[in-house]
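Per-record layout

source: Frankia casuarinae
name: Peroxynitrite isomerase
length: 188
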Amino acid sequence: MSAGKRSAAGSARSDTATSTVDLHASLLPLAFLVGTWRGEGVGGYEGLDGFHYGQEITFAADGRPALGYVSHTWWADEPRDGREPGSPLATETGFWRVQPGEDGKPVVEVMLAHPFGIAEIYVGTVTGTRIDLDHNVLIRTATARDVTRSVRLYGLVEGCDLAYAIDMEAEGKPMQSHLSARLHRVSD
Ligand code: HEM
């Protein structure tokens, strides 16, 4: 990935993300994420029937040192449990930022809020176009589902699609896959 052009103000426009807004220089390692992505994923968990879902994610840069993030999902399977194709599923929103690590490598910090009583922070690494969010703390309300930990992996596949996998430890069950998806870019 190219380092992009830096302006005197300390912000930069990425050569890889063709966003028309300035990308803060600290976010260059995440430049490949900027834009809107859409696609399909599969979900499941121990004791849960597998399902398909649709998803749209936007990573937005506005010149400040964090990307805004919002994800919407919808049911993409046969009707089940009162859900029809297109019925809204999980939404999450938050911010992604990059800080210099002790060894000089960029550290990614991701703050997410979920509408079902859970907020979480991930800390991880970015290596080229692969992001490992492997440290996670999660807080939840007394009525939220019993999720204790989660890890995520994001990356570009075949140079253009955004793929991710999310594993979680929930309801006393061991860490295992809950979601994975592959999304294509629909706008910069
Ligand atoms: C792409 C985003 C997501 C989608 C499409 C999704 C979808 C689903 C669906 C369809 C179910 C089963 C039906 C239901 O109980 O509602 C489910 C269960 C669950 N989800 Fe998610 N989910 C998403 C994100 C998350 C996240 C971020 C967490 C945790 C922070 C989470 C935690 C859970 C838990 C704990 C269960 C119950 C598992 C069990 O019954 O043992 N989900 N999810």
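summary: The pocket of protoporphyrin IX containing FE is lined by residues 43, 45, 47-48, 51, 53, 55, 73, 89-90, 92, 114, 118, 145, 147, 150, 168, 170-171, 178-179 (CB under 6 Å). The first strand starts at residue 5 and ends at 6.
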